[in-house]
Amino acid sequence: MIIIVESGATKTDWCAAALDKEPINVKTAGMNLATMPQDVIEGIVAEAMAEFKARGLDSKVSEVHFYAAGLIVPEGEKVPPQAKGLDHVLRSLFPEAEMEYASDLLDAARAVCGHKPGVAAIMGTGSNSCLFDGTNVVKNVRSAGFILGDEGGGARLGRLFMADFLKGLVPEPVAGEFARDFKVDYMTVVQNVYRGEAPSKYLGSFAPWILQRYDTCEYVRGLVEQNFRDFIERALMQYDIDRYPVGVVGGFGYANRNIIRKVAEPYGIRFSTIIPAPIEGLVEYHLGKK
Fold first, then answer.
1. Which CATH class is domain 2-102?
2. d(Cα 120, Cα 103) in Å, to the nearest integer?
3. Which residues have C-beta within 8 Å of that of residue 100, sequence separation ≥ 6?
C-alpha cells in the first residue's frame, strides 16, 4: 500500500492505493508547511489518518509521496527544510515507509506525462509549466506570480479585468453588472490586492463571473483568449512543442479546456490530456500503470 498526498493552499488530497485494492480517497484542509504551526499540521494529518482507518485502511504502508508547491530537496538531503515537522509526524506513523517530498511541478508532470517525456502545464488560480524528460523536470519557465506572470491562470484573468474596471475600460452592461454583483470600490480593491492575505485568491475569485459572459460579450471573449494566448506565447512556446505533447492539470484549465484548445490550435500545440486534478494520474504513475 502506498499513500499519495497532493497539498495545496486550500485543500489536500490524500489517496491510499494498491494494485489489488480500490483506492481510498480523503480530503482535508490545505497545508502551508512554511507558515503553519506544528500542532495544526499534526491535526490535519490525524484527521486524514482517522478517515483512512474508518474506511478500512489496514495494510502496511510501504511508500509515502508528498507533493506541494515550492518543495525543493537540497542536495544531499532527503527532506525539504519546510517539511521537517511533517516528516517527523509521518515517520512516527509509518516508520518503515519510504518517504518522498516533491514540488507541484513534478506532481503535475508525473500526473499528465507518466514516464514519458512531455510538457506539463499547471493552470489553476496561478500557472506554471515545465519540460519533463520522463524522470525529472529539466526546464522550467518561471511562473513569476500573479503580479509579474501567472499567464493563463484565474488570478491573471481577474487582474486584467479588475485593472480595466478601475480605469473605466470595461464596457456596459458588463461594468454595471459587476459593480452591482460585487459592490466593489477602489479602496476595497486596493486593500485586498496590496494588503490582503491572499491577493491571488481574491483576484481569481472573479474568474467564474467573468467566464459566464464569454459567449455573450466580445470584450470578455477577447480578455479570456488573450490570457491563454499569453501563456502559450510567453511560456509554452519556450519548450519544443513540435516534439512534445502538452498535458494540462488544474481546475481552471479543465473548466476552459475547449477555449484553450481553440486558442492553441494556430500554434500547432498537441494536448495529451487536460485534467482537473493530478491525484488520479499520480496513483497510476506510482502503481506503474502510466
1. alpha beta
2. 13
3. 63, 64, 65, 66
Give the start-to-end residue ranges of the domains of the chain. 2-102, 116-277
Fold of domain 116-277: Nucleotidyltransferase; domain 5 (3.30.420)
Q: Are 151 and 158 contacting, i.e. CB atoms less than 8 angstroms apart?
A: no
Residues of the chain where predicted confidence (pLDDT) is lower than 70 = 9, 289-290
Rounded to the nearest 5 percent, the helix, strand and coil shares of the chain are 45, 20, 35
This model's pTM is above 0.90 = no
How does pLDDT run across 143-178, given as a tens digit for each residue? Answer: 877 778 789 999 999 999 999 999 999 999 999 999
Of the candidates 10, 29, 33, the residue with the CA atom closest to the CA atom of residue 205 = 10
Fold match flag (2-102 vs 116-277): yes
CA 156 centroid distance within chain: 14
The C-alpha atoms of residue 50 and residue 43 are separated, in whole angstroms, by: 10
